Queue: 2 jobs
Job 1
Amino acid sequence: MRFIDGRYFLTSTQGGNIQMRSATTVEGLKTAQAKVLFDDTTAGRNVDFWAPEFWFLDGTWYIYYAVAGNQDGDTHHLHVLRGGTDPNDPSAGPYTYVNSLIPSNFDQWAVDGSVLQIDNQRYLIFSGLESSSPWTQCTYIVRMTSQTSITGDAVQISCPNLSWEIIGTPVQEGPEAITINGVTHIVYSASHCSTDDYALGMLTLTNDADPMVAASWTKSPNPLFTRNDAAGVYGPGHHFMFQKGDNFYFAYHGKAAPGLGCGNSRTTRVQPFSISGSNPVFPAAVATGVPVAEPVA
């Protein structure tokens, strides 16, 4: 989700395609017409489109996403689309398929690709399968050579090992980078999305350290954003952070009752978050019936 030139844009998937909604208010996104930006019948990349992110890089829109093929949900890999050049309208397109993004050492299940830029170097960060027994997802990074290509090996920079990261099964996914006052963080989702304990955690890059070295990253010991039983919010996570003016907001999905799993019972919510020094500070999750003020500049 992004705020661009007076409008909000939100991507979503319905299994077989990538869609985008746009409105002048967050509330308006609820009823906005969804526009299909891309679908694909190509064998090997035509099932379960997941987690599309849209980025305006060097004058062109790109969408990074994961998709599986051959009716096998365990075959997800990362891919990239190229779109239009209107900086104020990521929905204009058209979007065309460009490339798969498979590191030389990691031709296996990978999802949730996102872009991290440090100085003039871009990196692709993603969640990848470390082990299938038990199912374990870790956070990886690989260098980008252009908006649509990567080079070299992916490096595992963090794996779930804290009690709040391993509920259901050990998972780190949905990594999103943010740099605040010169300090770079990766905020990620932890534990399995089917559980009520899905939550947000954070890695912090040591200043001037190489992001391709695992030891350069420090994991926060406690989650940043968690379930709120008193408000009836369960399994909140898989966020995207954005700005409107000087204010910070995040979109995420959550569930309104316990035990609802990872399916269509999840709804998209938006709340503000704040900055303290060089760190993001996330609020308590609020119930769906509690009004949240529209973002302000």
Job 2
Amino acid sequence: MGRALAGLLALAMLAGCGRAPPPTEARYHLGEPWRQGPLWAYPREDFALNQTGIASLLPRRAAATLTANGERREDGMFAAHPTLQLPAIVTVTNLENGRSLRLRVNDRGPAEPGRVIAVAPRAAALLGAAGPFQARVVIDAEASRAAIAGLAGQAEALPVAAAPVGEVGREALAPPPGARGLATAAPRAARPAVQTVATSATARPPERLPEQVTQGAPRPGLLWIEAGTYFNRQLAAREAARLSGGRVEPLGVAGGPRGRQQQFRVRTGPYRGLAEADAAFARAIAVGLTELRLVVD
């Protein structure tokens, strides 16, 4: 009996080993709003991203799991971002030592609020990070547009419809007395009512970026909590009153370029270290503030 059971277990293991790995086809993905801890993250296309904050490390996961855009998870030049379109190409700089890497964002994360990006373990090692670190994240707009071009998962182009033009009936009237004869224009041919634009989605394997580290000057900064930017100073002051140590800071100069409205930023800080900033961040969440960011400045 024992030998038979062992044989069945061995067969089951062999069957499991023989399963095909998940597909590695790159797909475009934006997705629905999702909860980043107690806060909500709202994915959107953004080809001008330039942000600072705290980066975290992705956990080591089995390759059998898939990323948010359907790729097999791998340890390499990959990252997860709360809101960017997937895939996207970004440069992540460790502000504490000046090292930079180009990474391919293909997943959602990090799960912990107050973090701007999560990098794969191999990328973290090349960036010289063994844990959370101060980071700047800048998107490569051209490379990111190329990364999603033609990928399945994007909304198909809508038909381009032209307004239908019907035939106009004309009646030839006799010219008034003394008028010269006028040439009669020939009726125009009706244009097609609808013109369609054909699109086709292509499948291609995920792009793998090289392990190329760029060394720059370290630029560590101070940690601040930002609680939103407002056009109305009174509304900004109301939000600042809910934030411990909150203040209102005008952005830009009043009376600047025409058509550009004055904005007001709400923030508090600076904090001596990450533990202190995280504790203040948690307190801000507890009082009901939702437009929160932990930034490096």
